[in-house]
Amino acid sequence: SSSSSSSAMSGPTADAYPRFGPPLACGCCAPTPWWSEPDAAAMMTRTHTRETPRLMNTFTKTKTPFVPLDGNRVGWYICGPTVYDSAHMGHARNYVNFDVLRRVVTEYFRYDVRFVMNVTDIDDKIVMRAHQRRSEEVLALAEKTLGASGLDAEPSAIALKALLASGEKKLGEQSALSAALAATVNAKARESDSSSGPVVDESWSIQDAYLTLAKRFEDEFMGDMASLNVMRPDALTRVSEYVDKIVSYIQRIVDRGFAYESNGSVYFDVPTFEKDANHKYAKLNKAALAEDEVEAAMDGEGALAADASEKKDAHDFVLWKASKPGEPSWASPWGEGRPGWHI
């Protein structure tokens, strides 16, 4: 049907659409023209194109009307996976759940949603998994080249196996032993056949390997989500692509007095933030400051976290983590390191 020429809005009027807005078949029929007034709350009271959703307000513990900050536009940020392994049923449950909510918001309430998901591709679990796979690959190729008896007599192989069996997180030592064994394997291969190329890639570096592993599991995750009919995000952000911006952001927090450097790492200063008149820590979970909640709160610190004695307070958490040998690193005002999980 044609729109009224007397309408104050540009484009079609609210009456021109069915009760729940236009179909979403194409971009030329976007919902924004009929929801362009700055006073979104007032518009909601006048239009009959849709009902106003009411959401649980965590602060007041009551249901309140959902009013976008910018007309009909809604920015939605969702925490994506930490890509160190294959997705499991917990991932499926979480992302199917949010996909249903997203479809309700876009297809029923007709909001113009920009859905952004992050991927954590720099993390202790990714780094450790990359080293684990490298060591296992080198040991397998060493046994194939040297034979079982030769492998058992090779000092670097003996030491590498012992380190892996111990479960210790000495990644620098693990990397060095894997490299030494790789060099031995390639030398043995050349002795047997001078025209033979290297059996093991000696150019392996954790600075590249962590990302190779992360990309593989990110692709696998996206494939799994597609098989569940979960819509792709409108934008995908990866930690590895924003390290420079993360460094700048952390510096701003330090400059404002809410973070401090310690042994090359940077920690968020929880007590200082809590004491500030304009801020309140743990707004959504007041119990987070309880002494018995510290361990749970520090779960994201990672297996490669520094000693807790670096912190001023047990509740402080790492924003920038100083890198040790065998860990990927980027330059920063505080030294070589990488973003902490919390940032």
How would you sum up this structure, described in words?
The protein has 343 residues and is α/β, with parallel strands linked by helices. It contains nine helices and nine strands. Helix 3 packs across helix 4, helix 3 crosses helix 5 and helix 3 crosses helix 6. The protein starts with 39 loop residues before the first helix and ends with a strand. The N terminus is likely disordered.
Largest sheet: 4 strands, antiparallel
Secondary-structure element order, as H and E?
Answer: HEEEHEHHHHEHEEHHEE
Mean pLDDT, all residues: 83
Distance between the termini: 50 Å
Radius of gyration equals 27 Å
Structural class: alpha/beta
Q: How many strands?
A: 9
Structural topology:
Layout: H1 40-46, E1 54-57, E2 62-65, E3 73-82, H2 89-108, E4 112-120, H3 124-153, H4 155-166, H5 171-192, H6 206-227, E5 235-238, H7 243-255, E6 259-262, E7 265-268, H8 270-275, H9 294-297, E8 317-322, E9 337-339
Parallel strand pairs: 3-4, 4-5
Antiparallel strand pairs: 1-2, 6-7, 7-8, 8-9
Helix pairs in contact: 3-4, 3-5, 3-6, 4-5
